[in-house]
Design a protein that fits this description.
Blueprint: E1 6-13, E2 22-28, E3 31-38, E4 41-46, E5 60-62, E6 67-69, E7 76-78, E8 84-86, E9 95-96, E10 98-101, E11 104-110
Length: 116
C-alpha cells in the first residue's frame, strides 16, 4: 500500500556527474534548506540550527568528515544522521525525507489533514 502521509515536491534536477560532497541550498515555502550528497544518497536539512536558529549555510561545512558546524555556538552535527556530535544541548538536525524519481530529487512534506 502506498504511503499517503507525505506530499512530494520537486526540488532539484539531478546531474549524472554528481560528486561526493556536493552541496546546494534551496527555498521551499519561504524556508531555506541545505542538500548534501554523500555515499550515493541525498541528505536534506533545515538551514537553521535547531539550537538557536543560526544560519548553518554561514558555517563550517566539512565534507571530509560529513559534518556541519553552527557559526554561533559551534555545535557540530553529523550530516548523515543529523545527530549532535558536540555541543551542550541535546538537539539534532531534522533530516527531511527525499526520494529520486526520473532524474529529479523530491522532498517529502507531511500531507495536510484535509488532503487524506
Amino acid at each position: 500500500m502506498p504511503d499517503n502521509s507525505l506530499e512530494w515536491h520537486k526540488i532539484l534536477e539531478i546531474d549524472d556527474n554528481l560528486t561526493e560532497g556536493f552541496v546546494t541550498d534551496f527555498y521551499f515555502k519561504s524556508k531555506k534548506y541545505l542538500c548534501f550528497y554523500f555515499e550515493g544518497e541525498f541528505h536534506v536539512v533545515h538551514e537553521k540550527c535547531p539550537h538557536n536558529g543560526a544560519k548553518l549555510s554561514l558555517s563550517g561545512f566539512n565534507p571530509m568528515n560529513k559534518t556541519i558546524t553552527c557559526p554561533l555556538h559551534r555545535y557540530c552535527f553529523d550530516i548523515l544522521s543529523g545527530k549532535l556530535l558536540s555541543g551542550a544541548d541535546a538537539c539534532h538536525l531534522e533530516k527531511l525525507p527525499v526520494r529520486i524519481h526520473q532524474g529529479k530529487l523530491y522532498l517529502g512534506t507531511p500531507r495536510p489533514w484535509w488532503k487524506f
